[in-house]
Amino acid sequence: MRSAQIRRTTRETDISLSLCLDGGEVGIQTGIGFFDHMLTTLAVHANFGLTVSCQGDLAVDCHHTVEDTGIVLGQAFAQAVGDRSGIARYGSFFIPMDEALALCAVDISGRPYLVFDCDFSSGRIGEFDTQMAEEFFRAFAMNAGLTLHLKLLYGKNDHHKAEALFKALAHALAAAAAPTGGAVLSTKGML
Asked: N or C of the chain: less Cβ packing under 10 Å?
């Protein structure tokens, strides 16, 4: 079973997370409604089992909760894919969300990098600071060992923009993590 469980406690957050790349229960509780919705969307569209329980210093703002959740999810993803052998490695997907269109391309390469090309027109979506979208994706990519490109081609509604990005990531990750039964997909023989 390609899965991982991680508990990470700092002075700012206390996170318990369970991830299974082959499906399972989905239950998210971070204290930030819109972020819970996005993580649920990610899990459902990738067909991942994902449970997250996070107690964060939301009296300060949502920064630590969102970024630290990205760190822990990335660590769990890296553990779940293991040595990266026997997976497709690459995935990309376009997602239309009403008037918004987003693209995600991912390489489960072990070489973390993020390109994030998305502008939001408002500062918040519910209690979620829109600046934190990029911080989440960066923390996730760096800790998962992904080369991750996310681009919003167009859109007006910030909820739709963010949701299109998370759904595009979900489908690209599902494609890239799909089992192939082969060796590591690299001319080097390793990543």
From this structure: N
The angle, 0 to 180 degrees and rounded to 10, between the axes of the packed helices 63-81 and 33-46 is 20
CATH code 3.30.230.40 for 3-176: yes
Token pair in block for residue 144 = 């998962």
Segments making up each domain of the chain, as ranges: 3-176
Rounded to an integer, what distance in angstroms lies between the CA atom of residue 71 and that of residue 51?
A: 15
Q: How confident is the model over 120-133, as pLDDT tens digits?
A: 999 999 999 999 99
Rg of the chain in Å (alpha carbons): 16
Interior angle at CA 110, CA 149 and CA 166, nearest 5? 35
> What count of other Cβ atoms lies within 10 Å of the Cβ of residue 82?
11
Side by side, the strands of the sheet bearing 13-20 are: 3-9, 13-20, 49-56, 26-29
